[in-house]
């Protein structure tokens, strides 16, 4: 079993100090989440490596960034049926965010779509 100080990827939470040094402990846990993008008709972009996310509240903003990046890469695509499907390292669903609910920032080319 992994506990504080664990650095095994996908084996549970990673306990971090300010610089995430091995063996450091604090109240912050960082977990790896996979941000898959799924569209209608079986289209999908799978996040095979995942991203370390410091807290559950950061999943929504990270899902928005993932969706914006995909949409900005193909601006003429109809993304209305797509969603970001977020899973933890054990494959448990943590969040779904339809692309139509994504919050846009000032750098996005997709605002208004």
From TrEMBL:
Q: Sorted alphabetically, which Pfam families does this protein's record hold?
A: DUF6894 (PF21834)
Q: Which organism is it from?
A: Methylorubrum salsuginis
**Domain DUF6894, first and last residues per copy:** 32-98
The identity of this protein, by name, is DUF6894 domain-containing protein
